[in-house]
Amino acid sequence: MMGKVLRIEKTSIYDGEGMRTVVFLLGCPLQCKWCSTPESQNSACQNLYGKEMSAEEIVDEVSKDEIFFFHSNGGLTLSGGEILQQPDFCMEILKECRYRGISTAIETSFYGKYDYIQSLLPFLDELYLDIKVMDRKKHKSYTGVYNDLILDNILKLQKESWHGNIHIRIPCIPTVNMDEENIKDTALFCKDIPGLVDIELLPYHRLGLETYRKLNLEYALKDIKAPDAEELKTVAALLRKILPQTTIKIKGELYHP
């Protein structure tokens, strides 16, 4: 089975437990204004990037790093783009990795058919979910889609017998989603998610600016600065107040009040 791949990154320490090989897939139905990989979105410009690869080719490449996975409890992470754009391709990769004893994780917005999600769960160890903005109209304004499907999929996941680990990630963008109301709403929504291991804050950055220039695209948030350490700690403290038993991280590091 063939799929569209943006790139493969080795030895990542920010995309799951241990040392990871991250496969970034092309295609995403969202258009987040802060997106650092606009070339992965569903538009004509993605034809300039990436290549087609077979599931077998990808797993063979990932398997080259098995010694690093063994010593660090690492493995494969499928990311995007949005992996739910290529569910059958993802399933073949995850299934073969499981057969070879390689730990598996996905990073997803959860914007896709729930049937696709169900098909991946049997071959999945770790699930990293973005919750960007809780207000549906604001979510539409900043990402191009309403969040109803995303939140509904998370609620459906709670009824599954799947026993993998769930990690919630919040991209922290000043003036967009770091306000007290949004953080409280996010925390309350996450409160009853079974299997929730942690909530991680990912600070906004502008690393994709050069790609926007190459694609002749306007970068909508060019005037927004990255949040500083104190702003991130304020968000973390609010989450901890509502979720005292939940592990809170700031870009991979444990938050300590």
From TrEMBL:
Its cofactor is [4Fe-4S] cluster. Keywords: 4Fe-4S, Iron, Iron-sulfur, Lyase, Metal-binding, Pyruvate, S-adenosyl-L-methionine. It holds the Pfam family Radical_SAM. InterPro entries: Aldolase_TIM, Organic_radical-activating, Organic_radical_activase, rSAM, rSAM_sf. GO terms for molecular function: 4 iron, 4 sulfur cluster binding; lyase activity; metal ion binding; oxidoreductase activity. It comes from the Bacteria. Residues 14-243 form the Radical SAM core domain. The keyword Metal-binding applies. The keyword Ribonucleoprotein does not apply. This is Pyruvate formate lyase activating enzyme.
